[in-house]
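Dataset card, provenance and construction

Sequences and ligand SMILES were collected as paired inputs. For each pair, a complete structure of the chain with the small molecule in place was predicted and serialized as structure tokens. The example below shows a pair involving zinc ion. Curators did not alter the output after generation; any descriptive sentences attached to a record were derived from the structure itself.
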Amino acid sequence: MRGHTVDYRAQEDTPPRGRLFDRGFWINDIPRPLLTCRTFGHKPVVDGFGDGSTPGHTARWVVCDRCGERPNPQGALDPAEWSVGDAYTGPWTKSQPVHAEVLKAQQARGEATVGPHAPHPGPWPANPTWTFSGQAILGKNIPGASIEAKVGNSGSEEPIAAHIRIHPIGALYLGANTLGRGLQRRLNPTGYESRVIGVDIDHNRLTWQLWARRDHWSRSDPRWQQGSINLDVATKLFGQKRYWFTDEGDPVEATVRLPHGDDHTVTLQLQRCEFGREKLRRRELTWTVDWDKQGGGIPTEPGGRGRVSGFHIDVSAASVRNGTWPLEAAAAIAKTVTAMRTREGMNIPAEVA
Ligand SMILES: [Zn+2]
């Protein structure tokens, strides 16, 4: 048994902010006891994929129906003769396959050899092992949360895998390699498609998968197998959040006096600004002023290149009660325009003209 880890954070030039730990780990060559198979012998059956209709996309080999181990060589059976799931009753090869290079040399000398693609299955592994691997992340990851278990197909590298991910706490991904082969053969013996059981929450939406095909969805799939619901109950019941603006009273004129020495006459329209949900009475009320400067606007850049002729500016509820909101609006406009002038490098009164 041996193991190693990889620090994924150290491999990135700028590790993502808020991710404290991100490591992959592998524990290789963990012995599989396989007591039943050692006592009674493996149970050879035919495994594979494809139905022979597409050349190159069909293969048949031998596997133990109980533990999922494969003999070595695993055999390259004739798909016309063997179906997936058949008990294997054909001939066996005595020897282990040799390395491809050695094989080539042996064949050149005309010696009897057996390669990895030998037609008949060979000996079962003497000391079957499995690899436990995974990745642990502490801190920020993909937003949302999910928990999932996957049962792969006969071609999967990880026949059984699982993960749990909770933003922003962290995530744990696990794979059981050949240990899961037996379980995969029990649960999902035929076809290419992995099956997924899991729940995922993202942006107020909960998605579930119950033995759903991993990368595939079709209209004929039962509703219980795969679906999602909107968790945003408030929006469902009371509607979206939004703003409402309504004019209050008639427009009034006011003078905006800038610290650079120039005065501007502007038109102000007071507006009620309400914020809340469409179907709820209760709304947050603030006051805003929509101002407008006819005839070119107020200069904001040297030489009068840039000008501003209006925007919304907030005023206090107290100034609306007192009737002094035009003064507050004029001062607020002057403050914002001054900041614009600072950004554009228009700093001295002489530049105004
Ligand atoms: Zn077995």
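Derived descriptions for this record:
The CA atoms of residues 199 and 208 lie 5 Å apart.
The first helix runs from residue 35 to 40.
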